[in-house]
Amino acid sequence: MIGDPAPPRLDKALATVVPEGVALSRSHLGRLIAAGAVSREGGDVVTDLKTRSRPGEVWCVTLPPAGEISAAPEDIPLEVVFEDADLIVVNKPAGMVVHPAPGSPSGTLVNALLFHCGDSLSGIGGQKRPGIVHRIDKDTSGLLVVAKSDRAHHGLAAQFADHSISRHYRAVVYGVPSRADPRLAGVSGVAFEDGAIVRISGNIARHRHDRKRMAVVTNAGRHAITRLKVLEPFGTVAALVDCWLETGRTHQIRVHLTHAGHALIGDKTYGGRRTIGHKNLPAATVDLVRGFPRQALHAATLGFRHPSTDQMLSFEAPLPADMCTLLEALRAAAVT
């Protein structure tokens, strides 16, 4: 029953009285209203999102059963960093796709989670599936959190939506981003903050001529901000940087770093034209950089509030072996 005073719109009103543990967000309620799953007691089904609730009214919400998905469980090893009844944190290896898709129907993180989690899956969205609330690219390694309950799914999704989740990435880039570089200072959207932090701001949208790529655009796209700090320079040819996101857009770090002139080593999609200067560098180092098989990007840290206990959790995944080998070669070359 809607109490008094009631919020003006039905989706808002229902969201305030959802029973503990049901975990229905306002956006999910809006979709249920539009789908004809909400009715006034003793009255007709309501599908208009602008419907207003009145004090004393009783509303009925019909939740559709979770459907099965076509992805099959697969016994794929997972590096589990943390797990409880509500969520699981995994360290995804480079080369693993998160969701099944054309060209990658199996061998994905979802297939592995279906095997590992069994029946403890989130049914959000009307589909019985692991609660993937964020993704990283196939060739990016590192940490992901996955919801096992509907309540966890909603709670984590809300934290991603309000940007309260902490995520830091390690990347190896061409060149060394620096305030002293006049070229970088002249790039649109680039600013410098205290603590030697570089801030890159630029809307991101689909590339006009290549739908598989994203691009920085003006007067279109979605607002995006990336910050970075150099952790270790390797002469002037490359650097290990710490990146963190104020927003979370597709390929954001890769697109923003390329826009700033510091594409990720190994990024064939966005940094394919970049080469490393070979003057005074060992041939083996040049060959390693030029042949690095993926974008040198790793989701290194992840922090969030547990959606059930409200406890602050933080996790860290060490750099994978391929990036360590790359750094060792650059480090050795920089001191010779």
List keywords for this structure.
single chain; about 325 residues; about 20% helix; eleven-stranded mixed beta sheet; Pseudouridine synthase; 15 strands
Explain what the structure shows.
The protein is of the alpha+beta class. It has 3 domains: 10-61, no CATH class; 80-162, Pseudouridine synthase (2-Layer Sandwich), CATH 3.30.2350; 167-303 and 312-334, Pseudouridine synthase (2-Layer Sandwich), CATH 3.30.2350. Helices cover 21% and strands 25% of the residues. It has 8 helices and 15 strands. The protein has helices spanning 10-15, 26-34, 109-117, 150-161, 182-185, 252-259, 283-290, 321-334, and strands at 38-40, 59-61, 80-83, 87-92, 131-132, 141-147, 166-174, 190-193, 197-201, 203-206, 214-217, 225-234, 238-245, 297-305, 312-316. Strands 3, 4, 5, 6, 7, 8, 9, 12, 13, 14 and 15 form an 11-stranded mixed β-sheet that branches. A two-stranded antiparallel sheet has the order 1-2. Strand 10 and strand 11 form a beta hairpin. The chain is elongated.
